[in-house]
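Narrative of activities, Objective 1.

The group set out to show that a structural description can be obtained from nothing but a protein's sequence at a throughput compatible with the screening campaign. Below is one input-output pair from the validation batch, recorded exactly as produced.
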Amino acid sequence: MDEKLQKVLARTGQGSRREMENRIREGRVLVNSIVAQLGDRVSLTDVITFDGYPIKVTETSEDRRVIIYNKPEGEICTRKDPKGRPTVFDKLPKLRSDRWIAVGRLDINTSGLLLFTTDGELANRLMHPSTGMDREYLVRVMGDVTEENMSTLKKGVMLDDGMARFTDIVDGGGKGINRWFYVCLMEGRNREVRRLWESQGVKVNRLKRVRFGPIFFSSKAKVGRWVEMNNSEVNSLCTMVDLKVSSISSKTQTKKQSMKRQKNKNTADGGGPKKLY
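Output recorded for this entry:
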């Protein structure tokens, strides 16, 4: 392996290539204890540190993998928790050289669709607002919601960290004090859905993400389970975010077959997402 430094850093999930280029210019990256320069190339034997932390360099994987996980309430989006709480990484398939990178986060009390990939550049592009990947949530609120409230939420509300709004709100039914709504956002700031509703004097008591961009839940992804997207779906996703589509070697095909056997063990009947667009 002999690759540009910024590409290696992006693949490990540190940020986009452009962000990594800026970090290199700022002198925050060392290669073999020497301040890196833009244009440097690295190999598996090089020791890389970013802001003082070591970066594990692995062989380039031509096979980008993406899985859809149905997160239950009570799990946190960190690799390890000092309090011993369950994390979203606990039930993911084990990897030998790569690592799973979460595409965004869901708070501990939010359930639903969460994406993971082995490609840091893909993860960063999916999360970046410029790609236009909206998020759809099914939310149950407690309190009186008026047409004026919904109009305000779509026009925009000034929160502590800036202006926020729903791009769409659809009535999901319900009677009495609790009502269901489908809402869409173009970003994923911390507790943004909950804070928007709270600005209107109502409380969110159930929240589930049901879509991320073109990706919907598979009916096979039961709560606490995952399914893997097939190669065609992954390539389509890469094309949507202007990421070069990689070819699949026979070695990769063998790896996928092994992964499929593991997936069938994880879920009773396997399967990938039914919808991408």
